[in-house]
Amino acid sequence: xxxxxxxxxxxxxxxxxxxxxxxxxxxxxxxxxxxxxxxxxxxxxxxxxxxxxxxxxxxxxxxxxxxxxxxxxxxxxxxxxxxxxxxxxxxxxxxxxxxxxxxxxxxxxxxxxxxxxxx
Length: 119
Ligand code: 5GP
Ligand code: ZN
Known about the structure:
Layout: H1 3-9, H2 11-17, E1 26-27, E2 31-35, E3 43-49, H3 64-80, E4 88-91, E5 106-111
Antiparallel strand pairs: 1-2, 2-3, 3-5, 4-5
The protein binds guanosine-5'-monophosphate and zinc ion.
């Protein structure tokens, strides 16, 4: 599958382009964020690269600063969502064993309740 095909088929690329609707909480040229459609915590936001990168495992070394920026945006959203002090978790699932469902780089921002180890 070429990268062009994967973008065409990719749900997060479709959200980035507006083809699939989502409540956009943050957006700039490199990063955007929206609530997870199936939240497992009271605050569950996805912080996503605008560029299609299939997974953390596929991320070129040159994109490392992008992940730093995504973490910064997640912190900003944690503040806006009121969980900066109560606590939160950032998760990146990469690959099958991690249960990655959408093959487009994203960080889960989760909080708003006491979290156990996995959930
Ligand atoms: P992953 O398992 O790949 O780390 O997480 C993908 C997440 O994307 C899941 O938590 C899933 O609920 C969420 N998701 C999948 N499709 C959509 C969608 O169309 N809209 C939104 N807002 N979230 C989605
Ligand atoms: Zn994509």
